[in-house]
């Protein structure tokens, strides 16, 4: 599937089932272990529909290249799968991952393929070779050129099989994706898997009150370099116990706040995610949301969004999408508290494309921006300021239009669009050369 089409599907979340689930380690697990965890996750009180599993390897623990039992367990429990191949190893070891992948396709066919959401080649391999990863003693990683080669090998193996149409990508940390030395990995991916933990961002202001903002800032930075590829959140979480990390305090209360601010906001935005982790009693720090099937805190999302507290500080959540020629980019976000300031969403479309941005809620100020280039359409709607910019700066070329709808306050149209229209209540500003009709 083309990245641009996936971007569209990622945005049209209302029409498609969102994928939600947990990460599952392979160590010490067999069929019964996986099946029982998948059932526990699906039935977890408060957590709605956590029926997907992200795996790190295709190989069953204790074997050389036998298919991981998680596949049969997923089939039996109707659990969808984000497959992983461990890629921080030389070719002869990586070949075992490829052998297990081939066996899975041969053994389970479409019963398996129907559950596969995507295939990740590697997990945090580039983080581990970065200066921060090395300083943390995070272990053996992999270079971008080898990852690109391995991604190609996986594409070759799935060609002509039941997995042929599945997106192939890579999982890593946000600062890896924004490092231009790794651009070649991004351009070889159909999706980017983002692992993001504000708890570990000790160089930033990372108390729990700022954690949601740090998370979505990182998400947006990755969105800026993703070239329209969907970004799946492959790991995030907040520990219920463990050491203080910068200004981040591990506690049950803070883990519950983080769940509301991040997991519930991802759910709200329709972004696919795999939380870290279902259960890890005894680990330090301990990120598990449950113990013996019992949630450690309330996992039910508040009816509104994650950002529901009364705050006097300005809060901004953003999402963006880009599209190629003749396609559509949609970005949406919402802000539901009347005392928080500003949801900004933007959609940028290329030539022959259209961009749509929407913001819902009753924030004092919500800023919505849609930008489209020549021969394209931009529309923006929101309850606060809405900006729609259509057309190139060169003049009123044919076929360019911008639409801004604001039910709350103000609508602003800018750029040289041949047609600008909108329905507004409040201030109307038209800048640039434009013929407009309201
Ligand atoms: C950027 O990426 C390259 C290749 O993965 C790596 O060698 C380098 O250390 C990274 N730089 C930083 C600052 O993370
Ligand atoms: C979610 O709602 C509950 C009950 O309505 C409230 O006690 C809690 O503070 C809310 N959590 C957040 C993070 O807003
Ligand atoms: C939250 O803010 C609204 C609007 O300013 C105010 O009416 C309400 O009393 C506040 N609620 C709390 C719990 O502070
Ligand atoms: C909200 O945004 C407006 C416009 O940018 C600004 O004037 C106002 O001070 C902000 N309010 C808060 C509480 O940040
Ligand atoms: C087919 C095509 O035009 N792909 C392009 C889509 O947009 C991204 C980001 O702008 C480019 O990198 C692709 O080459």
Q: Can you describe this structure in just a few lines?
A:
This protein is α/β, with parallel strands linked by helices.
CATH architecture of the largest domain: Alpha-Beta Barrel
Kindly name the structural category.
alpha/beta
CATH hierarchy class name of the largest domain: Alpha Beta
Distance between the termini: 39 Å
How many structural domains are formed by the residues? 2
Overall geometry? globular
Number of helices: 11
- Compute the gyration radius: what is it? 23 Å
Major beta sheet, strand line-up: 7-6-5-4-3-2-1-8
| Main β-sheet description | 8 strands, parallel
- Helix percentage: 25-40%
- Strand share of the residues? 25-35%
CATH superfamily membership of the largest domain: Glycosidases
Unreliable residue runs = 1-16, 304-318, 334-345, 360-366, 390-400, 414-438
The kinds of small molecule bound in this structure are:
2-acetamido-2-deoxy-beta-D-glucopyranose
If you consult CATH, what is the topology of the largest domain?
TIM Barrel
Tell me, rounded to a whole number, the average pLDDT.
Answer: 78
Number of extended strands:
22
Task: Set down the secondary structure blueprint.
Blueprint: H1 3-11, E1 20-24, H2 31-43, E2 52-55, H3 70-77, E3 80-85, H4 91-113, E4 116-123, H5 125-129, H6 131-135, H7 144-158, E5 168-173, H8 174-177, H9 183-187, E6 191-195, H10 208-225, E7 231-235, H11 252-269, E8 273-275, E9 290-291, E10 294-295, E11 314-323, E12 328-335, E13 341-349, E14 354-361, E15 367-372, E16 377-382, E17 385-390, E18 401-406, E19 410-414, E20 419-421, E21 428-430, E22 436-437
Parallel strand pairs: 1-2, 1-8, 2-3, 3-4, 4-5, 5-6, 6-7, 11-13, 12-14, 13-15, 14-16, 15-17, 16-18, 17-19, 18-20, 19-21, 20-22
Antiparallel strand pairs: 9-10
């Amino acid at each position: 599937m083309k990245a641009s089409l996936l971007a569209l599907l990622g945005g049209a979340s209302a029409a498609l089932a969102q994928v939600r689930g947990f990460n599952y380690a392979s160590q010490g697990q067999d069929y019964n272990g996986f099946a029982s965890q998948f059932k526990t996750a699906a039935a977890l009180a408060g957590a709605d529909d956590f029926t997907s599993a992200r795996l790190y390897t295709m190989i069953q623990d204790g074997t050389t290249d036998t298919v991981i039992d998680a596949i049969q367990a997923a089939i039996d429990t109707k659990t969808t799968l984000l497959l992983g191949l461990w890629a921080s190893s030389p070719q002869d070891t990586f070949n075992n991952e490829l052998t297990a992948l081939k066996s899975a396709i041969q053994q389970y066919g479409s019963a398996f393929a129907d559950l596969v959401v995507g295939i990740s080649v590697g997990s945090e391999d580039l983080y581990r070779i970065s200066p921060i990863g090395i300083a943390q003693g995070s272990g053996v990683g992999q270079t971008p050129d080898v990852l690109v080669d391995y991604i190609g090998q996986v594409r070759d193996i799935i060609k002509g099989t039941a997995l042929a149409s599945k997106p192939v990508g890579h999982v890593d940390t946000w600062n890896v994706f924004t490092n231009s030395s790794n651009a070649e990995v991004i351009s070889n991916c159909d999706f980017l898997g983002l692992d993001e933990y504000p708890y570990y961002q000790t160089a930033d202001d990372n108390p729990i009150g700022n954690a949601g903002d740090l998370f979505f800032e990182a998400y947006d930075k990755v969105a800026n370099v993703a070239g329209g590829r969907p970004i799946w959140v492959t790991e995030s979480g907040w520990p219920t116990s463990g050491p203080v990390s910068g200004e981040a305090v591990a506690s049950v209360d803070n883990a519950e706040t983080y769940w509301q601010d991040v997991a519930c906001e991802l759910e709200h935005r329709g972004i696919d995610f795999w939380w870290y982790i279902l259960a890890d009693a005894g680990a330090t720090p301990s990120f598990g949301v449950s113990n013996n099937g019992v949630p450690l805190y309330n996992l039910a999302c508040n009816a509104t969004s994650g950002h529901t507290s009364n705050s006097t500080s300005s809060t901004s959540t953003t999402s963006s999408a880009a599209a190629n020629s003749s396609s559509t980019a949609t970005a949406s976000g919402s802000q539901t508290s009347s005392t928080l300031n500003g949801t900004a969403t933007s959609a940028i479309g290329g030539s022959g494309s259209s961009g749509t941005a929407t913001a819902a809620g009753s924030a004092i100020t919500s800023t919505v921006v849609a930008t489209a280039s020549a021969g394209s359409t931009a529309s923006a709607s929101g309850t606060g300021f809405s900006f729609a910019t259509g057309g190139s700066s060169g003049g009123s070329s044919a076929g360019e239009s911008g639409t801004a709808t604001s039910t709350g306050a103000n609508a602003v149209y800018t750029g040289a669009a041949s047609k600008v229209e909108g329905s507004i209540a409040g201030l109307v500003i038209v800048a640039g050369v434009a013929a407009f009709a309201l």
